[in-house]
Design a protein that fits this description.
The protein has 101 residues and is α+β, with helices and mostly antiparallel strands. The protein is built from 3 helices and 5 strands, in the order βααββββα.
Amino acid sequence: MSHKIVYSEQAKQDLEQLTYDLTLFVGMTKALQFIQKILHKISLLEDFAEMGRMRDDGTETREIFVEKYRIVYLIQQNQLLIVTVLHSRMLYPRELAENYN
């Protein structure tokens, strides 16, 4: 079953900030290459929504990884909501998790 990918406002902000930060540190070309890796991994979820592992925080969210970045998402009927994209060392914000109980 194919799922429509939808980005939360948080996920959009995360990707914008990540693009900005990476551009400062590694330059535009490498930053965009890495963002493309993330977007490619997300696109795989359209057909393989359950490929990510379930999070153990009491929510229905799942997560996949691209290098050191975590993509947290939620399967909702025929769509897939990208909740947030964050570095794996960062804690998943509790208030964000509570929105998906």
